[in-house]
Each structure stands twice: as C-alpha cells, then as structure tokens.
Amino acid sequence: MEILRYILYEIAYYGSAIWALLAVIAISSARFFGRAGVVIGALLIGALILALDVRWIFDDMRIHPENGRDADGVFIVGVFLRFVLFNLLLTPFSLLGLWLAKRHKTRKDEPKSA
Question: If you ran DSSP here, which 8-state letter would residue 110 be given?
C-alpha cells in the first residue's frame, strides 16, 4: 500500500500545469508525426522530466546543503522510473493523437461535394 501512495505522490508532485503540458506534447507529437511522433513525444517528455528533476535536486542542494543530496545513480534510476511511469500514464493521450491524425487524413482524402 505504501508504494501506491508513493506513486500517487509522484504523479501529483508536478501539478496540473506540467501535466497539461505533458498531455499536449503527447497528443500533438502523435497527431502531427504519427507513430514516430509517439516516440518523439516520449523522448521530449523524458527530457522535460529530467530537466525538472535536475532543477529540483540542485535547488534542494542549494537550500539544504546539510542533507548531502547529489545527482548520482539513485537519482538517475528515479528519473528513469518516473519517465516510464509518466509515459505509461500518457499513452492514452498519444493514442488520442494517433486517432486524430487518422481522422484528419480520412477527412482530407474524402472528395468534396459541390
């Protein structure tokens, strides 16, 4: 039960604005670049998570140097696990983007009636 609480904390930590940005990245990359866009979106989301976490850890190190936190292997494993978790949670948004791309292509290919 404790691991579920930790996962929910990880999800809620970034706030709604960051989650909205992540959803927009997932939808738009899949919408405009298709299947390759899903991979591109996942990598962009990973880069954003890495940037946010590095900023967070270095801000924490600056404010509380007595805690002795540093960017080591444990930190990188945590970032990787967040990357996997967030991309799993954003998969429905990527699928929505793929569906929108397919719908747009189908609508574009239909002959126009006069």
Answer: S
